[in-house]
Design brief:
The protein is an alpha/beta fold. Helix content is about 40%, strand content about 20%.
């Protein structure tokens, strides 16, 4: 049995501005750095054997905070990288609506039907991230492993682990720097925690 601690990265400037982030190599802002430290402290009690992260800067920074707390290195894994939003990368909702209002409505109403112009679909993301998770499980068949990724990736993963298709994408919430836990035993998933942000409560008063 492999236990996965799936973490979404901390906050960036574009999270605050609510832009389509995708493959943009954004750094954590000051809040995001504090969030990364908080989730790192919350994972200190777990017997973690390895940490894998999307290769983008915001995920590597979050994973590195966890690695410092757990005395582990970070391995980047391309399968965990954020969705490719194509020509929509960097756009706000308002800017995307001017470019293609029908596609934006479809994204919020039927996300499973969308392929971003010059980019990916949710099914593309699902196939590559589940293949990556399967490979990690094969390497860590009796271990607890941390994965650090992105909003879209985390939503897609949790839909898959809960037995939901991509049409349920918006029904699985993933806050910034959240923690999810699931286990794979003989390829069969068991979900034990979804969108936990208790480790961030102390930051609200600072």
């Amino acid at each position: 049995m492999t236990r996965f601690l799936l973490v979404r990265h901390g906050e960036t400037k574009w999270n605050r501005e609510e832009r389509f982030r995708g493959r943009a190599d954004l750094a954590l802002n000051e809040t995001g750095l504090r969030q990364a430290q908080a989730v790192a402290r919350s994972l200190k009690a777990w017997p973690v054997s390895a940490i894998y992260a999307s290769p983008l800067r915001r995920t590597v920074q979050t994973a590195s905070a966890i690695g410092s707390e757990l005395a582990l290195g970070v391995v980047t894994l391309d399968g965990l990288v954020d969705i490719d939003f194509g020509s929509w990368q960097g756009l706000s909702d308002q800017e995307a609506a001017k470019q293609d209002g029908d596609l934006l409505r479809t994204w919020y109403e039927s996300p499973q039907k969308v392929r971003f112009p010059g980019g990916e679909s949710l099914e593309d993301v699902r196939q590559r991230v589940l293949a990556a998770i399967e490979n990690v499980a094969a390497r860590h068949s009796q271990d607890t492993v941390v994965l650090v990724s992105h909003n879209v990736v985390c939503r897609v993963v949790m839909c898959a682990m809960l037995g939901l298709d991509n049409s349920s994408f918006w029904h699985v919430k993933q806050d910034v720097c959240t923690l999810n836990i699931f286990e794979l035993r003989d390829g069969l998933p068991t979900v034990t925690l979804v969108n936990d942000t208790c480790h961030l409560k102390s930051l609200a008063t600072k």
